[in-house]
Amino acid sequence: MIILAIETSCDETSAAVLKDGREVLSNVISSQIEFHKKYGGIVPELASRKHIEVINPIIQEALDKANVKFKDLGAVAVTHGPGLVGSLLVGICAAKAISYSLNIPLVGVNHLEAHIYANYLDQNPKLPFICLLVSGGHTMLVMVKDHGKYKVLGRTRDDAAGEAFDKVARFLKLGYPGGPIIDKLAKEGNPNAIKFTRPMIEDGYDFSFSGIKTAVVNYYGKLSVVGSKLLVDIAASFQQTVVEVLTTKTIRAAKDNKCETIALAGGVSANSGLRKALMEKGQEQGLVVHIPPLNLCTDNAAMVGCLAHYLLKQGKVSDLKLPAVASLRL
Q1: Was 179 annotated as part of a binding site?
Q2: Which residues are recorded as binding substrate (predicted)?
């Protein structure tokens, strides 16, 4: 089975070709980061227009790199939520056109679920497992009971972790996107220089990152002089605080639910501090830890195609009325 997958939920236009769900023949990603950087964040209307400009060339490039023709496709998969409605619609319309013209199955995919399945592209997590799904728009702990069967154990009550990174970076005038910038600065700073409170670290599985963001703002506002050394210490201490909360709750969830395996997913899974801490602390507790390679952490179509493979095996396909659902839940 050859699957063409399309991902346009936010500001990356991506198309991938997969064989039997896990062999990635191509995975092409066109990012809009440089375009949105001058605005300090993603402008939804402009993002959808950029998707329109590049969607067809990206699909063709994915097919060419995989040495596959349209006639070779057995199905087409596409993200239909959650995400920016305008962006989602571009990918959905392209997928519907391909499905209709070739008379092949259309598979609508949940973006959050697809991030979890990035772990299946080069690994094979043992079910059940606990997945920390952390991105700019979502932060949640999910128990993956089986393929397609999930239990959300906890989620953020306010800002997602990635959102907090971006907001802190914006306040400190570090640039956009904030996550990679803070991660880079944190490597040069002392993570124990400033003792920020670990929000809700002992309270259940839910998260809250609005308070730590405010704490950074208040600390910075009281300073009379801010040198480069102090700035990297703020970045390192902030990142350490967020990472400690995320890893502590993930490991606790695994222990409480008697899961031997934990996995990381979502855009923030590219954060070097989080990757290192989860791997080290998880292994210290005797857990098997799965972390996707960096090229599969951010939004990409390969993870969409992988999930679609498992959905097809369960007979789950969509019709041409497939909608774009901005707030689609896991």
Answers
A1: yes
A2: 133-137, 166, 179, 183, 271
For residue 228, give Cα distances in angstroms to 44, 54, 77, 196, 222.
Answer: 34, 39, 47, 19, 16
User: Across the chain, what does the average pLDDT equal?
Assistant: 95
- Say yes or no to pLDDT of 225 above 80: no
Check whether 185 is labelled as a binding-site residue. no
Write the DSSP string, 185-248.
HHTTS-TTSS----TTTTSSS-B--HHHHHHHHHHHHT-S---HHHHHHHHHHHHHHHHHHHHH
**288 burial class (0-12, 13-18, 19+ CB within 10 angstroms)?**
middle
Does the annotation place 80 within a ligand binding site?
Answer: no
Q: Is 133 annotated to bind ligand?
A: yes
Q: Is 286 annotated as a binding residue?
A: no
The percent of residues in the chain predicted with pLDDT above 70, rounded, is 98
> 111 among the known binding-site residues?
yes
Element at 264 (helix H, strand E): strand 261-265
Encoded tokens for 268: 């923030």
pLDDT in tens, 228-256: 678 999 999 999 999 999 999 999 999 99
115 is in an annotated binding site: yes
Enclosing H/E stretch for 96: helix 85-102
Two tokens at 217? 């703002």
- Residue 227: what pLDDT? 66
Task: Find out whether 269 is annotated in a ligand binding site.
Answer: no
Cβ atoms of 278 and 270 closer than 8 Å: no
pLDDT at 38: 86
> What domains appear along the chain, each with residue ranges and CATH number?
2-116+297-313 (3.30.420.40), 126-291 (3.30.420.40)
Residue 226, pLDDT > 80, answer no
This prediction's pTM: 0.94
Residue 135, annotated as binding a ligand:
yes
Strand partners for 142: 131, 152
